[in-house]
Design goal:
Elements (H helix, E strand, L loop, with lengths): L2 E7 L12 E7 L4 H7 L18 E5 L2 E2 L8 H5 L2 E2 L5 E2 L3 E4 L3 H10 L10
Parallel strand pairs: 1-7
Antiparallel strand pairs: 1-2, 3-5, 3-7, 4-6
């Protein structure tokens, strides 16, 4: 089992305690980024935690992830550098920008893909 360093940029407009900060965590390659972040006290937005609703959307700035467990993840999401941390397992060290729900909704609308389902 490998472990990777994941640097999470939390934008100022993200409605969590760490807004405006960059948080670095270690994530085993068998664990989802969201779960590891929450274990470290970083409560990123999420709803379904199955890769369906897109509430947890993030931008992948550097690195590679395995999104094969996501219920709804498209090639256009990957091509645009968007990930779903709730079902993303690191395959390398990562740098991501959290709280990109609106950006993923816009991307999916541009590509005529379903937006996901969320209580937001």
């Amino acid at each position: 089992m490998s472990s990777y360093t994941v640097e999470i940029e939390v934008p100022e407009d993200c409605n969590i305690e760490q807004a405006g900060e960059t948080v670095t965590i270690e994530v085993p390659d068998t664990e989802y980024v969201l779960s590891a972040a929450r274990s470290e006290g970083l409560w990123l937005p999420a709803d379904c935690q199955q890769g369906w609703c897109t509430t947890c959307a993030a931008e992948l700035l550097d690195g590679e992830v395995d999104q094969s467990d996501a219920k709804r993840y498209y090639e256009s999401d990957e091509a645009a550098g968007m990930i779903l941390p709730c079902t993303a397992k690191p395959e390398s060290d990562l740098r991501i920008r959290a709280c990109q729900y609106d950006e993923l909704l816009d991307l999916r609308a541009e590509h005529d893909k379903p937006p996901g389902r969320s209580k937001r």
